[in-house]
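U., I forgot to send this yesterday:
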Amino acid sequence: MSNVSDMWVLQQTDLAVEAIRRRLKELEHQRGETPALKAAREAYRAANAELVHWRTTRRDLEIQARELSAKIEAADRDLMSGRVRNPKELEGMNANVASMKKRLSAIEDQVLDAMVQNDQWQVDSDARKSELDAAEADWQAMQAANAAEVTAKLADLKRLASQMNQQWASLSPEDQQLYRDLRSRKGGRALAEERNGTCQACGISLPTGIVQSVRNDEVHSFCPSCGRLLHAG
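Result:
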C-alpha cells in the first residue's frame, strides 16, 4: 500500500518534469531573432540604403559634369575656330557657354556635397555593420548555448519520465486517482507541505488534530482551506 510520502515524492518529480517542459518552450521561443538583432539589422539596412543613394547620386552627378564639360569644350573650340563671324550669333554662343558653365559650377557643388554625404554615410554604414556583426555573434552564441541546454533538458526529461513512471506504479489505484483528481483541481499541486502547523500552500494555521494526523504517513489529511493533501515537512 502506498503512503503520503510516496505521493509527495511523485509530486516533486512531476513538478520537475513540468519545469523542464516550460523551459523547453521558452528555449523554443528564443530560436527566433532577438529584438536587438532585428534592430541592428534594420539600422544597418537604413544606413546602407543612404550610402547607396549618395553613391549613386554622386556617380550620376559626376557623369552629368563630364558630359557638360565636354559640351563646354566643344562650344569653346567652336568659338575659337573663327567659323562664326556674325556678332549676334557669337553673342548667343557666348551666352550659351556662360550658361553651361554656370550649370557646371552648380553640379560641381552638388558633387562635393554628395561626396561629403557619401563619406559620412560610409562611416555610419561601417559602424552599423560592426554592430550587426556583434549582434549576430551574440545571437549565434545564444543559439549554441540554447541547443546545448535543450540537449541536457531532454536527457533530464527522459530520466525523470522513467523515474516518474516507477513512482506512479508504486501508488495504489486509489492514490493514483486521488493524486490525479487533486492535481487537476489544484493547479498542478495535489499535495501541500505542513510545516510548524501551517499549510505551506495557502498559509493558514492548521488545527492541532490535523497537524497530529499528518504525522501518520498512512493517513490522508487535507488542508481545510485549500483542500490539498498534507505532507509532514
